[in-house]
Amino acid sequence: MCGTIVTCRYSLPPELTSGASPDAVETVLRDAVAHTVLEHPILQVSILDEDSPAPSWGQLDSIDLSYHVRWDVVGQDADYEAQFKRRSLWNMDTWFTDLETRPGWRIWALRRAEDFEAIDVILAWNHAHFDGMGGKIFHETLLGHLNRLIGNSDQSQKLPYLSPGVLQLPNPVERLPPKGEELVKYPVTPKYAISSAWSELRPPVLMGKKSHHAHWCPIRAEPFTSTYRTILIAPDTVKNLLVACRQHKTTITGLIHALTFVSLAVQLPKEVQAMTSLTALDHRRFMPSHPASHPWFDPHRSMSNIVSFMLHDYPTSLLDKIRSKAPASGSEDDVISGLEDFVWSDAARVRRELQARLDAGLKNDVIGLLKLVRDWRVQMRDTAKRPRTASWTVTNLGVIDGSGSGGSGGSGCRITRSLFQISSEITGGAFNLSVVSVKGGEMAVDVGWQECTIDVAIGDRLTSDVRLWLEHLGKGGERENGTSA
What we know:
By secondary structure, the protein is an alpha+beta fold. The chain has two domains: 4-175, Chloramphenicol acetyltransferase-like domain (Chloramphenicol Acetyltransferase), CATH 3.30.559.10; 180-396 and 424-480, Nonribosomal peptide synthetase, condensation domain (Chloramphenicol Acetyltransferase). It contains 14 helices and 16 strands. The chain has helices at residues 14-17, 22-39, 65-68, 80-93, 132-149, 153-157, 180-183, 190-201, 235-247, 252-267, 316-325, 332-359, 376-384, 456-480, and strands at 4-11, 45-48, 56-59, 62-64, 69-74, 105-112, 118-125, 161-163, 166-168, 226-233, 275-282, 307-314, 392-400, 414-422, 431-438, 443-450. Strand 8 and strand 9 form a beta hairpin. The longest helix is centred in the last third of the chain and has 28 residues, at 332-359. Pfam families: AATase.
């Protein structure tokens, strides 16, 4: 994985943009980033001995924000969305270099030449530094500092700049976020350890045709090129989807899994007789706040890596059911009416599995096995020689609070849109479905995959199917609530 991205569109208030020069706005953003860096120690460190079995964090004396924060203005005659996507893909697939002397993150701020009231801030980072929730926390922190800086130049004057753009850093070592394993125990039973070892080490010849592994999408190291499609769901539709999910005892995460399964079950060849998917799990809920060993640590406001995952199996019986119910021909309405009950049923199943995993706490979680891995380089090379485990992965960051109040009493900066994208994972799920919403606003679902490993027609059909289903089920919520005809 090269880069993970969380992008937010910031609406800028008149008190910041009226009569201001581009340089002035860029300075405010740079200073807000500087305050954010000082608040989160993980943004201040490098990685030493990255290619060794035991890499470690390195202390830096300063950081050159002119290197880490880049601005771009898209001309009036250019296709803004196309230019935005090009820069997003570049950030997803461009490796972070000089990790021993620079932190593994970068920002690309983008705006239209004719629009000075909104900017897209692309945050890309090396996942070793922090997880997707960390990216969400970054933007919420940045928003707060932007609003505090509006009309308050004293905040900028307090920053420890050694020279323009070069920020002096404190010693971050004593405030770095701890690993989850340092705060809580991840107990593992012998049965779980043996079962996991067998699943990992079993020869491919013993897996059989009904294996849940994604044999249909072999692992390929090259070309390492990501692609993605974005689905944007309108605010009213999002509200209706949430109502419908509650009525059917599921969540958006469970629903995205079910919709992906239905689409792939119909598209993939009959030789695919079983599948597995992954859900990324945020473990911050299990971490203590301000423990005696790390009194500064608040897991819910910490940019760190506290993530795990769980598997969901789709056996032959489920694929057969979908394939028998899906009409060979007919309208989109015919397809939906024939499968809607199943979609809700399977979405509820996934939700029950997730709840059972969370109710079990940290017992028999895959994180408990990581201490057995002596060298991750060897582990990844071995994994790349085996069949891919998951056909898709769902990661849902939930809701970003984009509201803001200006430091000078104005309306303040606000986040009006957010996107979440993950670069190709050579050994990960064939598809990445990445979800994030803005409070009271749109929900974005990004469907990503590695080029040349998947027929683009399958990815486009999956994107189209998920969009169609979400819009249909959202409209259904409107009818149930009597808000539309």
